[in-house]
Write a structure and sequence with these properties.
This protein is α/β, with parallel strands linked by helices. The chain has a single domain, classed as UDP-N-acetylmuramoyl-L-alanine:D-glutamate ligase (3-Layer(aba) Sandwich). Helices cover about 30% and strands about 30% of the residues. It has a nine-stranded mixed sheet, with helices on both faces. The model has no long low-confidence stretch (mean pLDDT about 90). Its main location: cytoplasm.
Length: about 280
């Protein structure tokens, strides 16, 4: 069993599902409302756990009832939460998510307690791999990468400035198409791996300008893409530390990402290893 530690955000997702997403200044009034656990790092931790890894999560929640809701599925799946601290007089992070019938989404995040994840207080446990979410505040991920003795993955998750040591030192960087364009030159100069995701079209794995592998995504009836990128990143990390080839690991990750779009909610949709393997067999 691979062991993985994840550093980053923990949120409660408030999800409005409607026939379509609003354009700027417009209003959509046919939505239904649900609440689910979320946050990039929390999603990645649960995804890795459901894929069979032994997982520890490091993050911050508030001292409010939302914290229990945000951690519920992680506790149920026996993710190690000893590195999750409830911050007094702070609220748990919240993500406001609008989802269209097509599965596309819009997300606004209020990080709240996540901003109190301070690098000096991080005691990173030993593990085979570390996944760091770029949205973690300050230099928390950079410090984790610098001090961790094992395979390191960073999920950039947004096109914005990032510590250059993260881009230089991480063994694997995961980006989507817009993030790949934003970080283009920095990624091209890296010695490590870069995984670029292309939504329903699949993903490719690079080292510098060399393409090491490419995989298409299994065709599924997508109803919510929230969390698909987190499932992909966790699956790719787990597969690589298990020793799967680049091609096999990328196929596994694409299948995990696709499977995560078949149900509503970021964490409720995250697939088990059996579900991913079944999708791969059907795809073959």
């Amino acid at each position: 069993m691979a062991s993985v530690v994840v550093v980053g955000s923990i949120n409660l997702d408030i999800v409005a599902t409607a026939s379509r997403l609003p354009t700027p200044g417009a209003k959509v009034t046919d939505a239904s409302l649900t609440r689910h656990p979320g946050g990039g790092a929390a999603n990645q931790a649960l995804a890795a756990r459901r894929l069979g890894a032994d997982v520890s999560l490091m993050g911050r929640v508030g001292s409010d009832p939302a914290a229990d809701a945000a951690l519920a599925l992680l506790r149920e799946s026996k993710v190690d939460l000893s590195g999750v601290v409830a911050v007094p007089d702070e609220a748990t992070g919240v993500a406001l998510i609008a989802v269209a019938e097509s599965g596309e989404n819009q997300i606004v995040v209020a990080p709240e307690a996540n901003l109190r994840l301070i690098s000096e207080n991080l005691q990173i446990p030993a593990a085979d791999a570390l996944i760091g979410e770029h949205l973690a505040p300050g230099d928390a991920v950079a410090r984790a990468i610098a001090t961790f003795n094992g395979f390191t993955c960073v999920v950039l998750a947004t096109a914005s400035e990032v510590d250059e040591t993260v881009l230089r030192d991480a063994d694997l960087i995961v980006v989507n198409e817009s993030e790949a364009a934003w970080y283009s030159e920095s990624l091209a100069l890296r010695d490590g791996l870069v995984a670029k995701t292309f939504g329903a079209s699949g993903a490719a794995l690079y080292r510098g300008s060399e393409e090491l592998a490419r995989a298409s995504s299994p065709a599924v009836a997508a109803i919510d893409t929230t969390g698909a990128g987190d499932a992909f990143a966790a699956a790719l990390t787990v597969a690589l530390v298990e020793g799967q080839s680049y091609a096999a690991a990328l196929r596994f990750a694409c299948a995990a990402g696709a499977a995560a779009t078949e149900r509503h909610g970021a964490q409720p949709s995250l697939p088990t290893r059996d579900e991913v393997q079944r999708l791969l067999r059907e795809y073959d």
